[in-house]
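User: Hi! I'm working on a homework problem where we have to compare a predicted structure to a textbook description. Could you give me the structure for the chain below?
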Amino acid sequence: MNKLRRTFRFKNFAEALAFVNRVGARAEEQDHHPAIKFTWGRATVTWWTHAINGLHRNDFIMAAITDEVQTEFEAG
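Assistant: Happy to help. Predicted structure tokens:
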């Protein structure tokens, strides 16, 4: 099964959690939710569509939105 996965790195646990919360909020707005794993200083976001057991256009859109969240996060 194809999936889009990216790991983001942060200075500490609190920053990783803040990022996860922002990604979660954006996912909730779109009603399309990723698998997110986070630990101290790291968050891994994986996008795929369960219903088709693969990738859909929405997965690519949400991966781009996740990258935007990272850019916003870095900007402060």
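For your comparison, note the following. The chain has a mean pLDDT of 95. The domain at 4-75 is CATH 3.30.1360.20 (Gyrase A; domain 2). Good luck with the assignment!
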